[in-house]
């Protein structure tokens, strides 16, 4: 089937380097087509998407603000977690600014929504190169990769985003200065937060893969914990555009917990690999 499915159905042993490139081309092409179709659908409804989704973290009625305030009262913290209301009037400095921003929103949202399919296409390209014994440990790989990506994206959108934009919009350097961000500035920060958190939350999956192929061990992760803390702090500083310690701690704490989860996953996988080696030698 050399049509739209390319040469991906060919056995990995029989495929030449050109065949691999041809298969990869079709995997990439199908992924791009899905992203573009979703982007067109989003672009058609761009006004609703922008007002109800993209502008959510800076909307005073956003669900996070009420939820945090209710949680603060429930935990007997008073108004500690009640974020002050914000009012952001965005602007654009070019005639085509809003149109270009609409295209950016459509493409990024199309990528995020189609992420499971994109990873499925990547997996279909990599899968033929794996041995049957290696495939046994990859069950539900697409589910777990997608799960942690969307978990991180949701964390960035519903929690980190509101904290970050709330801090930045209310920070006052002087009474003569008024914050009027451009739409591009807002989108850059939002995309960095959402997609950055989605990728950063893949730590347990990365730990699983690297342990499975023998590049790391649980002992390595445990011994590297101090260095990991420094790296996670740097990642938190990169993901969060605001310099306040609270926003950075909001990223650091879940990422450190995910690192600990990665140690647990690595330990479990390492024991399984050791057991398999013992059975092979016996």
Mean pLDDT equals 84
Strand content: under 5%
Helix-strand makeup class? mainly alpha
Largest pleated sheet: none
Order of helices and strands: HHHHHHHHHHHH
Radius of gyration: 23 Å
* Percent helix: over 70%
Number of strands: 0
Describe this structure in words.
- By secondary structure, the chain is an all-alpha fold.
- It has a domain of 153 residues.
- It is 70% helix and 0% strand.
- The chain has 12 helices and no strands.
- Helix 11 crosses helix 12.
- The chain is globular and about 75 Å long.
- The two termini are 44 Å apart.
Write a brief caption for the model.
This protein has 282 residues and is mainly α.
What distinguishing features does this structure have?
mainly alpha, 12 helices, 282 residues
List the helices and strands and how they pair.
Blueprint: H1 17-44, H2 46-54, H3 63-74, H4 97-113, H5 115-126, H6 132-135, H7 141-170, H8 183-200, H9 203-212, H10 218-223, H11 225-239, H12 245-281
């Amino acid at each position: 089937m050399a049509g739209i499915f390319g040469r991906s159905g060919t056995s990995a042993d029989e495929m030449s380097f050109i065949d691999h490139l041809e298969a990869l081309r079709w995997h990439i092409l199908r992924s791009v087509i899905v992203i573009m179709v979703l982007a067109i659908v989003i672009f058609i409804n761009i006004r609703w998407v922008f007002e109800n989704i993209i502008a959510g973290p800076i909307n005073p009625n956003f669900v996070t603000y009420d939820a945090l305030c209710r949680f603060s009262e429930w935990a007997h913290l008073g108004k500690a977690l009640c974020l002050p209301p914000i009012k952001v009037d965005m602007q654009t400095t070019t005639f085509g600014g809003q149109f270009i921003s609409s295209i950016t929103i459509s493409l990024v949202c199309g990528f995020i929504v189609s992420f499971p399919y994109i990873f499925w296409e990547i997996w279909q390209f990599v899968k033929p190169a794996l041995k049957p014994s290696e495939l046994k440990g990859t069950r539900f790989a697409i589910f777990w990769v997608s799960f942690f990506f969307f978990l991180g994206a949701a964390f960035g959108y519903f929690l980190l985003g509101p904290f970050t934009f709330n801090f930045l919009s209310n920070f006052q350097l002087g009474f003569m200065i008024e914050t009027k961000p451009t739409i591009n500035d807002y989108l850059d920060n939002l995309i960095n937060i959402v997609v950055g958190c989605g990728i950063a939350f893949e730590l347990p999956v990365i730990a699983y893969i690297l342990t499975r192929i023998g590049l790391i061990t649980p002992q390595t992760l445990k011994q590297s914990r101090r260095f990991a803390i420094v790296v996670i702090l740097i990642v938190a500083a990169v993901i969060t555009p605001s310099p306040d310690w609270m926003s950075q701690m909001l990223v650091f704490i879940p990422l450190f917990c995910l690192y600990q989860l990665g140690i647990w996953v690595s330990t479990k996988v390492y024991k399984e690999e050791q057991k398999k080696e013992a059975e092979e030698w016996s």
